[in-house]
């Protein structure tokens, strides 16, 4: 899908095998096997500027029935230009057209993303504290949004 972008051609498409190198430069948390599932199940997107990939988004289904944004990442030099917002809006519209009425995401309390999510209409919906030593981290905040 083409979208307007300050004299640059922006497009968003499902992740493809050819995105492997780009994807793993930005996403250090996904295994190769899960990447292949994202391709197969069309649960990942790539945003391109002038046919160059600059951002990614991936999701899964929380409780097997609610779209849950698990990662959005915009290359550093393209941040703060509205690309993340456009990518999330595209995902939200896809989820709504697929019949979903609510979406979710999360971020750690020590990350700035929480302010971004609130600004685009997500509501605080609780948190999770992980105290298992190997996985210990700051509280994970959950957000929901009706679509």
SSE layout and pairing:
Elements: E1 2-3, E2 10-14, H1 20-26, H2 32-41, E3 44-49, E4 52-62, E5 66-74, H3 83-97, E6 102-108, H4 113-119, E7 123-128, E8 140-146
The residue ranges in which pLDDT falls below 50 over 5 or more consecutive positions are none
**Helix/strand order, N-terminal first:** EEHHEEEHEHEE
Shape summary: globular
Number of strands: 8
Mean pLDDT: 95
Quote the beta fraction. Answer: 35-45%
Distance between the termini: 20 Å
Total number of helical segments?
A: 4
Strand order of the largest sheet: 1-2-3-4-5-6-8-7
Account of the 3D structure:
This protein has 147 residues and is α+β, with helices and mostly antiparallel strands. The protein has helices spanning 20-26, 32-41, 83-97, 113-119; strands at 2-3, 10-14, 44-49, 52-62, 66-74, 102-108, 123-128, 140-146. Helix 3 (83-97) links the parallel strand 5 (66-74) and strand 6. It holds the Pfam family Acetyltransf_1. InterPro entries: Acyl_CoA_acyltransferase, GNAT_dom, MshD_Acetyltransferase.
Keywords:
single chain, 147 residues, alpha+beta, eight-stranded mixed sheet, 4 helices, 8 strands, MshD_Acetyltransferase, GNAT_dom, GNAT family N-acetyltransferase, Acyl_CoA_acyltransferase
The gist of it:
The protein contains four helices and eight strands. The chain has helices at 20-26, 32-41, 83-97, 113-119, and strands at 2-3, 10-14, 44-49, 52-62, 66-74, 102-108, 123-128, 140-146. InterPro entries: Acyl_CoA_acyltransferase, GNAT_dom, MshD_Acetyltransferase.
């Amino acid at each position: 899908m083409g979208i307007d972008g300050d004299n640059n051609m922006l497009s968003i498409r499902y992740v493809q095998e050819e995105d492997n190198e780009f994807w793993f430069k930005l996403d250090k948390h996904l295994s190769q096997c899960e990447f292949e599932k994202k391709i197969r199940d069309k649960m990942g997107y790539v945003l391109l500027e002038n046919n160059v990939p600059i951002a990614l988004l991936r999701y899964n289904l929380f409780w097997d029935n609610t779209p849950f944004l698990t990662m959005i990442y915009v290359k550093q030099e393209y941040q703060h230009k509205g690309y993340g917002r456009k990518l999330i809006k595209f995902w939200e519209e896809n989820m709504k057209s697929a019949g979903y009425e609510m979406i979710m995401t999360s971020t750690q309390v020590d990350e700035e993303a929480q302010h971004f999510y609130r600004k685009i209409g997500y509501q605080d919906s609780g948190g999770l504290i992980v105290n298992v030593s190997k996985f210990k981290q700051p509280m994970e905040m959950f957000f929901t949004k009706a679509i």
